[in-house]
Automatic annotation (TrEMBL):
Cellular compartments annotated: Secreted, Extracellular space, Extracellular matrix
Taxonomy of the source species: Eukaryota, Metazoa, Chordata, Craniata, Vertebrata
Species assigned in the record: Leptobrachium leishanense
Laminin G domain: residues covered: 58-151
SUPFAM superfamilies: Concanavalin A-like lectins/glucanases (SSF49899)
One Pfam family hit: Laminin_G_2
Identification of the protein by name: Laminin G domain-containing protein
Length: 234
């Protein structure tokens, strides 16, 4: 008899689409941090992001918490601002509005106590300094949560085309070279096109569908996360 491969459905509340995935208010996705962020990077890293918010709120795009439930790393979108958390009770913010219904391509670079937000393919950058030296390592027993600070917090609702993790400075200032083709196109042509993904009503039934790749570089296991190969919190 031939070998049969079992494919788990994607987590509840995560809907794949042509260019990535949609996180709805019902999304419940967690994984061991070491399966998402390489141990060698710790908190010194670059995030390359392409996303579109569908609902205005104060949710985290992701959060990393230690075994003792302390926030070690996170990215929060509030109206008009992006807040980057590095270490317990340490954060910096940037004046930037993600909640405008448009696609946003950006990079967030963390090196030591310096945090930089890059936009417009690196032509615009803003620096912020952490006032206290941060821990360079993440708790290997920690948990990565996608779309919220924890399972009891408000959920980021929107479409994610790309969420990649690179070594610090490698992809930050020229991050557009690292964007997937479909993500660059979404950004370039967004003024002439209707929203790529419609808003998901709260009452909508969320079918279980076969997964697609969200990430493709250092966060290879993040791809498994949204394909359901790492078990979500139900």
């Amino acid at each position: 008899m031939g070998n049969k491969t079992s494919v788990r459905p994607v987590p509840h509340g995560v809907i794949p689409f042509k260019s990535g995935v949609i996180l709805t208010q019902r999304a419940r996705v967690e994984a061991p941090v070491h399966s998402v962020i390489p141990t060698s990077l710790g908190t010194d890293l670059t995030l390359v992001l392409s996303l579109c918010s569908h609902r205005i709120n104060n949710a985290f795009l992701f959060a990393v918490k230690s075994k003792k439930k302390k926030l070690e790393l996170g990215l929060q979108f509030i109206p008009g601002k992006i807040i980057v958390y590095v270490g317990h009770k340490q954060s910096v913010y940037f004046d930037y509005n993600v909640h405008d219904g448009q696609w946003h391509n950006m990079a967030v670079d963390i090196q030591g106590q310096k945090v930089t937000l890059y936009t417009s393919c690196g032509k615009q950058r803003v620096h912020a300094i952490l006032h206290v030296k941060k821990d360079d390592a993440l708790d290997s027993d920690g948990v990565f949560t996608l779309g919220k600070m924890n399972q009891h917090a408000i959920q980021f609702e929107g479409a994610i085309c790309q969420f990649d993790i690179y070594p610090p400075a490698k992809a930050a200032h020229n991050y557009c070279k690292y964007l997937k083709k479909q993500c660059r196109q979404a950004d370039t042509y967004r003024p002439n096109l209707p929203p790529l993904i419609p808003l998901i009503p709260k009452e909508a039934s969320l079918p279980l569908v076969s997964g697609v790749s969200l990430l493709h570089h250092h966060s290879a296991n993040m791809r498994d996360l949204v394909r359901g190969e790492i078990l979500p919190v139900m």
